[in-house]
Every structure is written in structure tokens, then in C-alpha cells.
């Protein structure tokens, strides 16, 4: 199965079973992380649809110059960033068979759902310590970076303060914490 899937895996993908090469769990990206499902809208406040604490391996992929990124902030400093592969509001449609020369259809939605994984974070930390922001990277700023990594917080900080980057949403610690508590796992 590994040989069949190997051409489709990113360089950050998990090694085949048993091939840990003596690395620690932290080096392999294992540990707790939060899986947060966010609904964003152009006209309304964002909402958290689901928040789940997961223990396991988080695999991130790299992409070239994505137009949106999330930051999760702790004590006013960026703790983690996650890049969105393309415009989350973009809706693609099939070409009209009657007019294939017009090509694929592109529309803009008013709202969208995004799944974000925040590493090294548990439910307690997510509900009390984190705030969340979404930024849009305009054409002027896209040329400033290539193949961003979520772990390159210096690059993320430069992007946030560069011309052409706008903040699309800002959830404070209190707002994010309340939203996660409302949809997260319930204590017995």
C-alpha cells in the first residue's frame, strides 16, 4: 500500500510503519493538537462548528503563496500559523458541455468552512489561552514569500505587518474560548 501511495504523499507525510529512525515523538510531530472547524462569512461573525482535542501525528503540507492564513495567538504573540491553500470563498464548477470553450466556472461564495489543526494545544489551552485571526494576502504581498511553513513565525510576523495583508477576522481569547466550549467535548 505504501508503494502505491508514495507518489501522492508530500515530503512531510508520515513514514511507513516501523520506519521511525530513532526519532522522538515530538520530532515526529506526535502529541496533542486541536482540530477546529471554523465557519467564516463575509457578512457575519465567524462561528466555531466543532473543536476536538486529538492525540496523534499532525502532518502539514507546504504550498506556494496561499492567499489566506490563520494565526493563533497566546499572550499577544503568534503561537502558530496555518496557511489556507486557496481562496476559501472560491467555488469551482464544471464547464458547460454546450460551451466548453468558456472553461471551468468560478463563483464567490458568501461563507465557507475551514478546518484548522493547531499543534501542541489541548482543550484547556484552546479555551483559555488562544485567540484566532484570519488574514488575506493581496497580490502586492504574495510576491514576498514562497512555500511558507506554518512553523516560520518570523515570516508570518513580517506578512502581518506588510502592505497588502488585511485582517479578515479577529476572535479574542474570550470569544474563541466560549465558542470552543460551546461545541467541544463535554465533561461528565
Summarize this entry quickly:
The chain has 188 residues and is an alpha+beta fold.
| Share of helical residues | 10-25%
Unreliably modeled segments? 10-28
| Beta-strand content bin | 35-45%
Number of helices: 5
Order of helices and strands: HEEEEEEEHEHHEH
Assembly form of the protein:
single chain
**Distance between the first and last residues' Cα:** 40 Å
Spatial extent as radius of gyration: 18 Å
Main pleated sheet: 4 strands, antiparallel
User: How many domains make up the 3D coordinates?
Assistant: 1
Structural class: alpha+beta
- Total strand count, please? 9
Strand order of the largest sheet: 4-3-8-9
Give the overall silhouette.
globular
Please tag this protein with its features:
188 residues, alpha+beta, four-stranded antiparallel β-sheet, 9 strands, globular
What does this structure look like?
A hairpin with a 5-residue loop joins strand 1 and strand 2 (47-57). The chain has helices at 2-5, 123-128, 139-142, 153-160, 173-183; strands at residues 30-41, 47-57, 68-74, 77-84, 90-93, 105-108, 111-119, 130-137, 165-171. It has one domain (26-183). The protein is built from 5 helices and 9 strands, in the order H-E-E-E-E-E-E-E-H-E-H-H-E-H. Residues 10-28 have low confidence and may be disordered. With 188 residues, it is of the alpha+beta class. The radius of gyration is 18 Å and the shape is globular. Strands 4-3-8-9 form a 4-stranded antiparallel β-sheet. The protein starts with a helix and ends in a 5-residue tail after the last helix.
